Amino acid sequence: MDFLNAALATLRSAPPWGWACGILGALFLGWLLGRSSGPRTRSAPRPVRPESDFSGLRDLKASVARLEAENTALSNFFLLLPDFTKEINSRMERRAIAPLLVKITERLFAPTQVLLFLLDDRVNALILVQQRGLAEDVKVGFQVKMGEGRIGWIAEHKVPMDTDDFIREMRQSGVSLEVPAHFRFKTELCAPMVHEGRVLGVISVGGITRHYKYEKTMLNLIADLGSIALHNNLLFSQIQEMANSDGLTKLYNKRFFMNRLSEEILKAEKGHYPVSVFIFDLDHFKHYNDSQGHQAGDEVLKITGQIVRDMVRPDDTPARYGGEEFIVLLPQTPKDGAMVASERIRVKVASHPYANRESQPLKTVSLSGGVATFPVDGRTGSDLIASADAALYRAKQAGRNRILRAETKYFSDGTEDTYYGTTNG
Fold first, then answer.
1. What is the mean pLDDT of residues 181-189?
2. Strands 125-132 and 143-145, sheet pairing
């Protein structure tokens, strides 16, 4: 008790600044004691992001980049599509369609190889008509049978396929789609060209450097556009053939022949080569019509037209000139060659077993004809035909069933008649 009283007396006697110092010292001492005795605390560490989060981010970025690339490619494709569709359907020449299909396929997939086959019904095989990136030892014209290898399998089953589809098909069905003769074909993506259930061809793509999620659908779209263009070309050719052909003999008509003659003469003038014309008619045809009837006469004309078609070359132009008169254009053929070709037709007609041919004055159905050659016998189509027709008239006068060549007018001799194998003076 005495101790407390003494302490209080001491505090009462202390000045105010002493009180302040004491309070501050007590607070400082309390802070030091609390720091040394209390638990030490640290600031919370920053959370560490798991590695899986970085991997997911990378995958997301890759997916976004892939989608952007596909979107750009698809945009380019759909920008190309209208012009491609317009161009491929405006081409009336069959040979112009294949290069266009290969061109857009290259621009779309940037491949190292593109092959385009068209079906040839005559041999029931696919014929290589256009290619890019194929070895030189495999030529255009290479044939693939229906059902043979990957390309033949596509044509037979009429479905687009890629490499995974081919592998799956071989595993499931056990069929072998690898053919040794096709080892140079890089068929990674393949689509058939089908129109109304009929196969017209196949497009094969290999070494693709630009892939798409729906690449089979895209190639199939190109193939479908190609098949439509081929079908339209076929229809156009049929209509054109009907317009340019004689309905009875199936030869070309006079209008088409005259156009072709003008074209060939123009080419011959530029190329400095001969063009020959062979014109003929059937001897005593009116007599045959009167004695056997007009139906029998029409049959003779049909058979004669078939003989002419079978005897001429692919580049020649046979036509029905009018009535029982026929004419043949022989490009790049001198007069001697034209005489040989014409004589073959004459012999074939004279030996053919026409019905009741014995009733004819010559005891057979025969022809008389004339041959003229550009430029010596005429420099225009009309002059050339006139020269050949004059030779035909002389053949009639000479006894029929023969061919004479047009007279080449010289100042020294204007009367010489020369026909195949004989000089008629």
1. 92
2. antiparallel
Q: How far apart are CA 146 and CA 155, in angstroms?
A: 6
DSSP-derived 3-state class of residue 346: helix
Terminal CA-to-CA distance of the chain, rounded, Å? Answer: 180
Among the options 324, 325, 343, 407, which is catalytic? 324
303 plus 406 within the same structural domain: yes
| CATH, residue 236 | 3.30.450.40
Query: In whole angstroms, what is the distance from residue 16 CA to residue 26 CA?
Result: 16
CB-CB neighbours of 406 under 10 Å: 25
Residues 168 and 295 in one domain: no
Write the pLDDT tens digit of every residue in 331-370: 999 999 999 999 999 999 999 999 999 999 999 999 999 9
Per the structure block, which two tokens stand in for 2? 């005495």
DSSP classification of residue 138: S
Q: How many CB atoms lie within 10 A of CB 274?
A: 20
| Residue 85: exposure state from Cβ atoms within 10 A (0-12, 13-18, ≥19) | middle
pLDDT value at position 419?
34
Tell whether the model's pLDDT for residue 275 goes beyond 80. yes
Extended strands (E) in 246-316: 275-282
Q: In 3D, which of 340, 337, 322, 341 has the Cα closest to residue 389? A: 322
Average pLDDT, the chain: 85
Do residue 311 and residue 221 come from a single domain? no
CB atoms within 10 A of CB 328: 29
127, with CB counted inside 10 A (0-12, 13-18, 19+), is middle
Given its phi and psi angles, is residue 147 left (phi above 0), alpha (psi -120 to 50 degrees) or beta?
A: left
3-state secondary structure of 202: strand
Looking up tokens 């799956």, which residue turns up? 168
Residue 6 resides in a domain:
no
pLDDT of residue 307: 97
Residue 422 C-beta-side C-alpha neighbours within 13 Å = 8
Peptide bond before 361: cis, by omega within 30 degrees of 0?
Answer: no
Domain, as residue range, for 198: 65-240
Confirm whether 178 is a catalytic residue.
Answer: no
C-alpha distance from residue 101 to each of 73, 129, 131 (Å)? 18, 11, 10
Pairwise pLDDT comparison (325 vs 239), residue with the higher score = 325
Instruction: Say how far apart CA 188 and CA 216 lie, in whole Å.
Output: 10
pLDDT of residue 67: 72
Work out the angle between the directed axes of helices 335-351 and 294-311 (0-180°, nearest 10): 140
